[in-house]
Recover the amino acids of this structure.
């Protein structure tokens, strides 16, 4: 799947990311959310930059991931992009972790993936951060996945959390 992802053309990634972000921003889940958790996208993942900017402009409470150990990720509130510094895996993270939420306290959680199935199984990057974070609160989670990375066969075990909603272009 990593090889397949790496082979996706740049023009496809841009167009598909734009469409996915349009769909998220137009969704009832986004419009009704007071608090939103979203990932800061890595190359090859559906982009979230426009969603982030719009959520901040709309006055929503915006939370992003911060890896605080090899097993734990927090949802940390940001009010702008100024306090973000490269953290775990080179992903920008907030330095100030005074305001956090659990998954069950968030109205909308956008989840990245390498690949996903239409029945809610997702293949992440292998560290299990999202499965642990969502273990008690996946009902508001939405997986963002490129349609070219959708698969029928995604391996899953009892620790893997199924994501109830999938958005692709």
């Amino acid at each position: 799947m990593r090889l397949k992802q790496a082979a996706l053309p740049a023009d496809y990634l841009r167009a598909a990311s734009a469409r996915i972000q349009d769909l998220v921003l137009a969704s009832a889940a986004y419009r009704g959310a007071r608090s939103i958790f979203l990932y800061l996208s890595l190359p090859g993942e559906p982009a979230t930059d426009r969603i982030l900017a719009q959520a901040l402009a709309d006055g929503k409470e915006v939370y992003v991931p911060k890896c605080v150990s090899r097993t734990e990720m927090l949802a940390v509130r940001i009010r702008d992009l100024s306090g973000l510094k490269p953290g775990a895996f080179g992903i920008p993270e907030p330095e100030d972790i005074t305001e956090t939420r659990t998954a069950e306290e968030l109205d909308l959680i956008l989840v990245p993936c390498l690949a996903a199935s239409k029945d809610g199984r997702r293949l992440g990057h292998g560290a299990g951060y999202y499965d642990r974070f969502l273990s008690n609160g996946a009902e508001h989670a939405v997986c963002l996945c490129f349609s070219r990375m959708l698969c029928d066969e995604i391996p899953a075990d009892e620790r893997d959390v199924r994501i109830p909603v999938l958005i692709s272009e």
The chain is about 25% helix and 25% strand. The two ends are 18 Å apart (CA to CA).
